[in-house]
Amino acid sequence: MNEEVSYGYRKVSPWEKTRLVLGHFETIADRYDLADALLSFGLHFFWRRVALERLNLKNGDRVLDLCGGTGDFAILAARKVEPAGKVVVCDISRAMIVAGRQKAFRAQLERSIVWVQGDAENMSFSDNSFDAIIVGYGIRNFVFLKRGFQEIHRVLRDGGKFLALEFSIPRAKWIRNIYHLYSFHLLPRAGKIITGTAEPFHYLAESIRVFPSPEDVQNELAADGFKNTAFERLTNGIAVLYTGVKDSAPQSGRVL
Ligand SMILES: C[S@@+](CC[C@H](N)C(=O)[O-])C[C@H]1O[C@@H](n2cnc3c(N)ncnc32)[C@H](O)[C@@H]1O
Prior knowledge:
The protein is α/β, with parallel strands linked by helices. The protein is built from 9 helices and 9 strands. Strand 4 (about 85-90), helix 5 and strand 5 (about 115) form a beta-alpha-beta unit. The model has no long low-confidence stretch (mean pLDDT about 95). The structure holds S-adenosylmethionine (SAM).
């Protein structure tokens, strides 16, 4: 297959995109949390809180934190679903998982969080395994958005809720101008100081620009079988929350 996909502004083979993205997270895993907090000016704490509120988790829920990385969402979710529930973190990067497990241990949540190394677009979980699935800053890295959404739909139970938090472009022109300046010039430099490499931050800035608009992502969710799809812009659209529900029940129609 010689199909090419976007890796930031470049076109690469699907296999190459996975290799490059994985390489970034393996390299910056130890510094990921610090970079996340500093480079988002702490905004990610607020965005994560809003995201968790939208999921309405309760004790006993089985939650998948997909592309879960160092487990920030998993830790927040575990506190909502314990003691009866469980959170599974699935991530392709072993280094991110290792960093996350240490954090979960420090938070005394090692019994509530299970860590699995795997590919979001080809998961090993059975159909209908989870009550809720959350993806934080992960769908932009999918090689094929459709394949990722179809896998998420498959492993979610009927009635279960899917939520993705992803970066996007701010709406107001003046914020957009500052944002472009920040993400193409300051971000890679600051990222290099924090993590020792600028490349993941160049990729971050470019990949946000080539990622589909919130309207297109919502349409893709609907095309992949999700119902009640919606998106909500946060902080003028710098981040967007996408939601959808799996509802495989036949639509009530005319009975002959
Ligand atoms: C930007 S980090 C986000 C981590 C975490 N969700 C958070 O909110 O901080 C993206 C994560 O997605 C993971 N990832 C990228 N592609 C993946 C894939 N195909 N399957 C599973 N994980 C993937 C990376 O290893 C990385 O840990």
